[in-house]
Amino acid sequence: MSIVSVTSKAGIQTAIAAASRKTGIDFNYLLGQAQVESGMRANARATTSSATGLYQFIEQSWLGVMKGHGGEHGLGWAADSIRQTASGRYVVSDPATRRAILDMRSDPGTAALMAAEHASDNKAALEQRLDRPATGTDLYMAHFLGQGGAAKFLGAMESNPGRTGAAMFPAAARANRGIFYASNGQPRTLAEIYTRFAGKLDKGAAAVGATGLASDAFDDLSGGIDAFGAGMGDSEVVLGTGAVDGDRHWVETTLAQLNSARTGADALGREALNPFRPTPQTAKLAYLMLAKLGA
Q: Are 163 and 138 a contacting pair, CB within 8 Å?
């Protein structure tokens, strides 16, 4: 796979949309996460850790997701170069190769793909452990605390939302005091921390033109798509690719199938589309959405 660097807002949004289309992870969530993590800056670097790029992957997290999913996206050379030690640490024997793999964190297309794959892994793990659908906020907690930490946080919040987060995660609290403590020094509860994460995701997504909530993207499967459909009104979607007036009817039909995802079939007996499984229909819908946004 060739790496094409894009730095414009439209180019980065297009890269995120492509990652959403390929993996089935909600576009609004990926958009909101990128805005919160890096302000949509592909070359963002943290001053207190190795976190780099659009999604602020630290080195070990990046090597792990690249090892697991690089081969699926034409980056087999990178995946094959990464080895996991007995202690669980990911290493690359050749320094130049290691640097080349880590530098891909600053490529929006690759970063978005790996962020989406990482979210997909976290989604599956959390849903298995929590026995409920994962929301966008749940996935962001897993990005922040790791799968195990997020499962611990979410499980504790369900039974005792008033428990303080710093007491459960002292190391994370020391490194992220603004998240775990209010400005007056009062420790925040699990519910307060979770609510702040949800608000940050939604605010981030809205700031860059998302059409739905990022915080509950996996709880309300069609929220972002519904907003897009409603936003069309009675106007024609104008594309520079020879699209015809029939696109509007096609979108409405596809929306109806997506909205029936929970029941398995729509009113006409057609099989419902799975929003998390990329298909030609959902790919075209994502393209039309980008076109309407001017990307």
A: no
Q: What is the pTM of this model?
A: 0.69
Distance CA(154)–CA(139), nearest Å, equals 11
Residue 163 to residue 145: CA distance in whole angstroms: 17
Residues 6+ apart with CB under 8 A from 28: 136, 205, 210, 211, 212, 213, 214, 217, 223, 224
Cα separation values, 56 from 35, 69, 111, 294, Å = 11, 18, 9, 26
CA 167, CA 188: separation in Å to the nearest integer? 10
Structural domains in the chain, sorted by start? 9-207 (1.10.530.10), 223-293 (no CATH)
For residue 183, how far is the Cα from the chain centroid?
Answer: 29
With a pLDDT cut of 70, the percent of the chain lying above it is 71
* Burial of 125: CB neighbours in 10 Å, binned 0-12, 13-18, 19+: middle
pLDDT tens figures, 1-42: 434 445 588 889 999 999 999 999 999 999 999 999 999 999
CA–CA dist 227, 28 (Å, integer): 11
HSE at residue 79, side-chain half, CA atoms within 13 A, is: 13
